[in-house]
């Protein structure tokens, strides 16, 4: 019987990628939970907090396009 090419590491990679995507997408989708806390904690306006979340989402989109090219 021939041993498989990946030697079982494909499952480790799959779980790692799934966990990374889960945490990344989860943070972006739940950023509104932290909105008021950041506003009060840092003493900034809602506009400033909104910019920080928008930049995070835009960076995620731009990074995706760059990775797609590779």
Explain the overall architecture.
- With 70 residues, the protein is mainly alpha-helical.
- It has one domain.
- Helix content is 76%, strand content 0%.
- It has three helices and no strands.
- Helix 2 (35-42) packs across helix 3 (46-69).
- The chain is elongated.
Shape: elongated
Q: Major sheet: size, sense and barrel closure?
A: none
How far apart are the termini?
36 Å
N-to-C order of helices and strands: HHH
Low-confidence stretches: none
Sum up the structure in keywords.
70 residues; mainly alpha; elongated
Quick recap of the structure?
By secondary structure, this protein is mostly helical.
What is this structure's SSE topology?
Elements: H1 9-29, H2 35-42, H3 46-69
Helix pairs in contact: 2-3
């Amino acid at each position: 019987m021939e041993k498989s090419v990946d030697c079982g590491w494909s499952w480790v990679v799959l779980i790692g990628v799934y966990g990374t995507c889960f945490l990344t997408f989860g943070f972006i989708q739940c950023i509104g939970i932290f909105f008021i806390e950041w506003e009060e904690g840092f003493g900034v306006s809602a506009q400033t907090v909104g910019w920080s979340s928008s930049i995070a989402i835009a960076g995620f989109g731009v990074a995706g396009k760059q990775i797609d090219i590779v």
